[in-house]
Hints:
By secondary structure, the chain is of the alpha/beta class. The protein has one domain: Rossmann fold (3-Layer(aba) Sandwich). Helices cover 32% and strands 26% of the residues. Strands 6-7-8-3-9-10 form a six-stranded mixed β-sheet. It is globular and about 50 Å long. Magnesium ion (MG) is lined by residues 47-48.
Amino acid sequence: MTAVLQLSDVGVTYGRGATAFAALQDITLAIEPGEMTLLLGPSGSGKTSLLQVMGCLLRPSHGHVRLFGEVLAADLGVEAMAALRLAHIGFVFQHYNLFPTLKAWENVAIALDIKARPRATQRGQAMQLLDRLGLADRAEHYPSELSGGQKQRVAIARALAGGPRILLADEPTAALDGKTGQGVTAALHALAHDEGVAVVVVSHDPRVEPFGDRVLHLEDGRLVDDWRPSRSST
Ligand SMILES: Nc1ncnc2c1ncn2[C@@H]1O[C@H](COP(=O)(O)OP(=O)(O)O)[C@@H](O)[C@H]1O
Ligand SMILES: [Mg+2]
């Protein structure tokens, strides 16, 4: 398997001089397609910073990042980084970030619009994506008419608009109760296994752990554990 993302000796330092703070240090790892990688660690351990580096949202202070084997230049501009994100990476956040005045399908279609997919195909593609997340019958509903788990699945459908090969989710279940959170985590796991997407999920909830093919553990900005739970079936 070819890694979709490779980080070599990555470090992130916020601030400078006396207030400089090393949020990440010496991170070397590769993210593979077709599996769900969990990024666990206590609050403040650097999970969001690491996800932002993976998602080309944050340029590392040290080391380098390879996307599909290509090294991202250290002087890559903001616009070039945005173009890479748009083409390859889907994001899911804790608070869904749906537009309240748009129906479920329109929330997905707007992402297709940003990715310059033809207007005439947007509704159909949005419906397909919602259907994949088990939400075909909720397409005409507004976010206020959806449960937390349904809203998060709309957000996942939107993140998949345009077919990114990498899906990054930052605490996607933090606002959900345990059972709903498990449903959302199972949906993310299925995307990795059924469609070969590289899925990385940040969490500090140990209940998501059984869904991970691989578990990365961060503490004080360092990778302290990287393991693959063995299971009888997946
Ligand atoms: N923009 C920033 N400026 C300064 N410090 C930051 C910034 N973002 C995060 N940090 C600090 O870096 C550390 C790691 O933060 P973060 O990556 O958000 O961790 P986590 O997601 O695990 O809670 C924390 O101590 C946090 O306060
Ligand atoms: Mg965080």
